[in-house]
Amino acid sequence: MIVVTGAAGFIASCLVSRLNQDNFNDIVVVDNFSVAKKEDNLKGKKIKEFVDRENFFEWLDNNYEEVEFVFHLGARTDTTEFNKDVFDLLNLNYSKKMWNACAEYQIPMVYASSAATYGSGSLGYDDNEATIPLLKPLNPYGDSKNDFDKWALEQTAKPFFWTGLKFFNVYGPNEYHKARMASVIFHTYNQIKEKGSMTLFRSHNPDYADGEQMRDFVYVKDVVEVCVFLMHHRKNSGIYNLGSGEARTFMALALNTFEAMGVPADIDFMDTPESIRDTYQYFTEANMSKLRSIGYNKPFYTLEEGVKDYVQNYLLPGKYY
To answer: Is 178 a catalytic residue?
Structure first.
């Protein structure tokens, strides 16, 4: 059996589909299933068992001998939430419990970290584990992810294989439920569909023109491909970046969305809200050489390829992955 936590969410539900494609059908999905807004993400998928996250560790104590792998992707991901207790409960303490259980039962695991751990990027975007204790995230979400990365590296009891993945700006199908935390591409598509135009944040940094703020946008199909690779690889434990490796501008993202929709580009700008202006990242780009060095050699979707696939094959027809 393969366990996937946060399974009704964005990335994890895509991973379940990807595993099904390779005929991994004995999948145990873990989530807070009282949140009905995400239920469509798991429709039609081959699943062995649904386990509520509150009951998971009791379930694992009774079933660990049958568990082959754990993907711990469940987390609170709201970067605008500033209640540290929420993140301590779900992102830090629950993850520690998952790690300890996988270490005790020697179950290999992959868990979700985040590029939010890099903060302003003043120390760069290299997944060098020696720099992790020096990183200064810009919000409690980033803190919670970095706190767990630091804790994991300090442990003497470990799963026999483990990997933390620093997800950069992931976009793609199955994020319909994420509201304001959905990708910019999702919001761009909906704005264009509703108004025929798109509004981007104005730059408040003299080094960047309006719309030229840059992010490493990574397509969710690449993310799950890396997860499947690691499930089979099971060596070279550690913390790895997971982005496309190429920063692109928000302007390029918007223009590609207009093109994929067959709509003339119409872009204007609004001031970045003051509540996030001081913590706004103007540039992120994953150094992907570490993952490449352990044998992951598949090409990543370009922004053009990913946006076209997402818009034309999922958003326009309203489909799930």
So the answer is: yes
pLDDT of residue 251: 96
Return the SS3 of 200.
strand
Given 94, 141, 310, 314, the catalytic residue: 141
Q: CB–CB of 15/173 below 8 Å?
A: no
- Whether the predicted pLDDT of 242 surpasses 70: yes
Position 142 in a domain: yes
> Is 141 annotated as catalytic?
yes
pTM of the model: 0.94
Most confident of the following: 59-68, 132-141, 175-184: 59-68
Query: Is 145 known as a binding-site position?
Result: yes
Residue 131 belongs to a domain: yes
Looking up residue 22, the CATH number of its domain turns out to be 3.40.50.720
* Run of H or E including 27: strand 27-31
pLDDT category at 141 given cuts 50, 70, 90 is confident
Q: Which domain holds residue 21?
A: 2-168+219-243+286-300
Strands 198-201 and 267-270 come out as parallel
Cβ(172)–Cβ(319) below 8 Å: no
SS3 207: coil
Is 180 contained in some domain? Answer: no
User: 38 among the known binding-site residues?
Assistant: yes
| In a domain? residue 280 | no
Q: Is the pLDDT of residue 314 over 80?
A: yes
Residue 290 counted as an annotated binding residue: no
Residue of 96, 150, 178, 308 marked active site: 178
Q: Report the domain count for the chain.
A: 1
Q: What is the mean pLDDT of residues 111-116?
A: 95
Q: Does 125 count as an annotated binding residue?
A: no
